[in-house]
Amino acid sequence: MSVEILKQGAEGRLYLGEFKGEPCLIKERFVKKYRHPDLDTQITRQRIKAEAKAANRCQAAGILAPRILHTDLNTHKLYMEYFGSAKTAKQFIQETVTESAEPEAVKQQLQILCTRVGGIIGKMHANNIIHGDLTTSNILINPTAEDYDVIFIDFGLSHYSQATEDKGVDLYVLERALLSTHSEQPYLFDLMLAAYRKECGKDEDAVLAKFEEVRARGRKRTMIG
């Protein structure tokens, strides 16, 4: 089976390959030379299992995520569904901004996306799924016959937690990522948060209070350096 390298990062490589005749993405985690080999194997296997489990939990909750086709703990590889026509939300937002000269038209179009994304994150948290790396690079926009699906990917830092602290941190990571990547559209997070509130469940007030606390800690660290 031939494979094509799509991306290489600090944690591993992404390949385009095939599993049982189906095109798939293969995520391979690197061996970390600075760790004891036995410890590295243990940590890597735990993270692969956690990533597969989080994707499966999302699907069980009605949240779109890649189907996990196979896990190979010996070679540190995860085989998952490939969305060949999809683009990242980062690309989608940038193209929307570039293709329209009217700021209000851009905002109206992005509001639709933000409402969907915020609602899905709220649903994740209502099901105690913490993504861990909420950025627009980890959200796919996959075209359908009439519209598009929003699919969350890369659950390498995800875990299951009922703690409001973890949910607040997840929201803070999202806010910082949006402000960093899409600084010219500072309204994106507020639009997502409005949709989040409707879906995040009975812990809404506690989670948002914790988010404000985490945000305040982040600002203090930035001021102090």
UniProtKB/TrEMBL annotation:
The primary site where this protein sits is nucleus
Which UniProt key words apply to this protein? Activator, ATP-binding, Chromosome, Cytoplasm, Hydrolase, Kinase, Nucleotide-binding, Nucleus, Phosphoprotein, Serine/threonine-protein kinase, Transcription, Transcription regulation, Transferase, tRNA processing
Where does it live in the cell? Chromosome; Cytoplasm; Nucleus
Enzyme Commission designation:
2.7.11.1
The Gene Ontology biological process terms listed for this entry are:
tRNA processing; tRNA threonylcarbamoyladenosine metabolic process
Which molecular function GO terms apply here? ATP binding; hydrolase activity; protein serine/threonine kinase activity
**GO cellular-component terms in the record?**
chromosome; cytosol; EKC/KEOPS complex; nucleus
Give the UniProt family note.
Belongs to the protein kinase superfamily. BUD32 family.
Q: Where is the Protein kinase domain?
A: 1-225
> What SUPFAM superfamilies does this protein's entry cite?
Protein kinase-like (PK-like)
**Name used for this protein in its record:** non-specific serine/threonine protein kinase
User: Do you know which InterPro entries this protein is assigned to?
Assistant: Bud32, Kinase-like_dom_sf, Prot_kinase_dom, Tyr_kinase_AS
What reaction does this catalyse? L-seryl-[protein] + ATP = O-phospho-L-seryl-[protein] + ADP + H(+); L-threonyl-[protein] + ATP = O-phospho-L-threonyl-[protein] + ADP + H(+)
